[in-house]
């Protein structure tokens, strides 16, 4: 089946994919119901902490994808126009992420305990001020992100690259991303344990959020490479380049963690070391730390050293899934030990359903935008625009 001259995406043949949407809608509803039941019942603490974990994870994936597209633009890259557009497609979750963020005041008792300390510290961490500055920052960041997405998805792909307006939006987006995600790291993670201080944590948080976005883009690109609807748009060479980026930022994120850990370890200050000891030495959290280190960083980085996995859609997507699983557990380990005081590990049916619901909603948002993102790269659109699919190979 041929694409139209306007680059419209053809309908699935033979009912392909018709059962995916109902499944995703079912998972989203199950996750929402499980959260509401738990949040209004005896499991309200577990409900709100897993809500925050998933908000940080999926919001980071959506924003990280848009940041990847902006970096591609600003560096003048030409290696993977389809990959850039797929990364933009992940940003379809951003409006919903903001609405979900606005629900956090309902979980104030579970997530934001009163801060006792110096007057200045109490004023800075007072909930109305904390929530207000975070909401304002996200509103501006998401607004610029959506403006950039709209401008770049409407614009045709041209060999000469982006216009000055697009570059200006991309630069503004990166500055806002670094600023707002540093603020979120302090207010939504570090402030859960008000006695813990780290000047490097903000950079670690926005770097790992970008890694999550890279992982999501890698899975989406691998799926597109194996799809008949977008056959030939995502090449093995582009997957190889994306795999190299994934390797670099996996190693870079591990380096940032070790840099932070090393300073805390040899400083041995009470206000810093307690946060680390709880997660690396105390049960039930210590086994999770080893799973994250090995399954989320060491093993995927080792696999990405080879050339073949980076060029094979199935292998690359499998490695990306391992990285994302490790990063989800990492977000869990950052948030939950500061809030959960029981000796048992709070991972069960509730956490699974809420995470599955978040993931289903994210995929639904991406599925709504990705075909539009790649539609202009279909052969009919390129004949009219005069450019080659995917640019140089």
What does this structure look like?
It is built from 16 helices and no strands. With 393 residues, it is mainly α. The chain has one domain.
Summary tags:
393 residues; mainly alpha; disordered N terminus; disordered C terminus
Give a short overview.
72% of the residues lie in helices and 0% in strands. It has helices spanning 20-39, 44-74, 81-89, 94-101, 108-111, 119-124, 127-154, 164-189, 201-225, 236-267, 270-280, 286-304, 307-311, 313-335, 349-375, 379-385. It has one domain (13-385).
Topology, please?
Elements (H helix, E strand, L loop, with lengths): L19 H20 L4 H31 L6 H9 L4 H8 L6 H4 L7 H6 L2 H28 L9 H26 L11 H25 L10 H32 L2 H11 L5 H19 L2 H5 L1 H23 L13 H27 L3 H7 L8
Helix pairs in contact: 1-2, 1-15, 2-3, 2-4, 2-7, 2-8, 2-9, 2-14, 2-15, 3-9, 3-15, 4-7, 7-8, 8-9, 9-10, 9-14, 10-12, 10-14, 12-14
